[in-house]
């Protein structure tokens, strides 16, 4: 199984790339974690947020594979505990060869991205920087896998 983080934003700081890479290396072969950077729309003083989100939507939705299970990250989504994520991961590992997680850019995901997703997940009612979300998700997927494998990291 593969988990792809489809993340709006390029040129992540080194600490973000390093953090994600650390958890990618820890994931086992049977549950790979991949990060795909998707360019954000160019911000200008006159560009509307809706227009920017629609531009990013087109780029994100182009990356979705037919048959993939799609999870959109949005603070309006459902909160999951780490244990709930582990339950979902168990199910995905047995039934879904590809899970794609959509991470919006500075303005979040468009309604079109949210509507295209099979599930909408919220890390918190707080708003996080989109680059930080990459590390949090990478760590949580590793922690969820460690629960499924009864690995000591889960504690």
Could you give a quick summary of the protein structure above?
This protein has 155 residues and is α/β, with parallel strands linked by helices.
Strand and helix map with partners:
Elements: E1 2-8, H1 14-26, E2 32-38, H2 49-62, E3 69-79, H3 82-95, E4 98-103, H4 111-116, E5 119-122, H5 130-148
Parallel strand pairs: 1-2, 1-4, 3-4, 3-5
Helix pairs in contact: 1-5, 3-5
Describe the overall structure.
The mean pLDDT is 93. This protein starts with a strand and ends in a 7-residue tail after the last helix. The protein has a single domain, classed as 3-Layer(aba) Sandwich (Alpha/beta knot). With 155 residues, the protein is α/β, with parallel strands linked by helices. It has a five-stranded parallel sheet. It is globular. The chain is built from five helices and five strands; from the N terminus they run βαβαβαβαβα.
Major β-sheet annotation:
5 strands, parallel
| Secondary structure: number of strands | 5
CATH architecture: 3-Layer(aba) Sandwich
Going by helix content, strand content and strand pairing, the class is alpha/beta
| End-to-end gap | 24 Å
- How much of the sequence lies in strands comes to 15-25%
Rounded average pLDDT: 93
CATH class: Alpha Beta
Instruction: Please tally the helical runs, counting DSSP H or I stretches of 4 or more residues.
Output: 5
């Amino acid at each position: 199984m593969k988990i792809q983080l489809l993340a709006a934003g390029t040129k992540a700081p080194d600490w973000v790339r390093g953090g994600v890479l650390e958890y990618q290396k820890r994931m086992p072969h049977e549950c790979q974690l991949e990060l795909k950077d998707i360019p954000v729309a160019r911000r200008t003083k006159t560009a509307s947020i809706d227009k920017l989100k629609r531009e990013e939507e087109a780029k994100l939705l182009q990356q979705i594979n037919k048959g993939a299970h799609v999870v959109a990250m949005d603070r309006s989504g459902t909160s999951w505990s780490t244990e709930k994520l582990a339950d979902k991961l168990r199910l995905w590992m047995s039934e879904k060869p590809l899970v794609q997680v959509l991470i919006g850019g500075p303005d979040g995901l468009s309604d079109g991205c949210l509507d295209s997703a099979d599930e909408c997940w919220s890390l918190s009612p707080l708003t996080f920087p989109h680059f930080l979300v990459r590390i949090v998700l990478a760590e949580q997927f590793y922690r969820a896998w460690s629960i499924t494998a009864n690995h000591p990291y889960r504690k």
